[in-house]
Amino acid sequence: MNETSLKEFIEKLTLRKAGVITAETPLLSSGLVDSASLLQLVAFVEKQCGCKIKPRDMTLKNFDSAARILAFVETSGK
């Protein structure tokens, strides 16, 4: 998974035009991604990384932007 594929998925998930979502666009804290969408986003990340994300890791710190998601995946070794 790379930044481009993650942002493209988020744009489709949130029905935004291509190029609207940046690496730093707030997802959860802005309400752009709700709890149901978060589950779809987590499933996408798990599929792309071949990992399982624990519920305790589904936090603002880890999932509030594409950059945070990528950093979480990289630092957690997933």
Detail the topology: elements first, then pairings.
Elements lengths: L2 H12 L20 H15 L10 H4 L2 H11 L2
What does this protein structure show overall?
- Helix 1 (3-14) runs antiparallel to helix 2 (35-49).
- The protein has a single domain, classed as Non-ribosomal Peptide Synthetase Peptidyl Carrier Protein, Chain A (Orthogonal Bundle).
- By secondary structure, it is mainly α.
- It is built from four helices and no strands.
- The chain has helices at 3-14, 35-49, 60-63, 66-76.
> In the CATH hierarchy, what is the superfamily?
ACP-like
Average pLDDT figure: 94
Report the portion of residues in β strands. Answer: under 5%
Task: Count every beta strand, where a strand is a DSSP E run of 2 or more residues.
Answer: 0
Low-pLDDT windows of residues: none
Overall shape: it is globular
From the alpha carbons, calculate the radius of gyration and give it in angstroms: 11 Å
* Helix/strand/pairing category: mainly alpha
Q: What is the name of the CATH topology?
A: Non-ribosomal Peptide Synthetase Peptidyl Carrier Protein, Chain A
Tags for this model:
78 residues; mainly alpha; Non-ribosomal Peptide Synthetase Peptidyl Carrier Protein, Chain A
In short:
The protein has helices at residues 3-14, 35-49, 60-63, 66-76. It is mainly α.
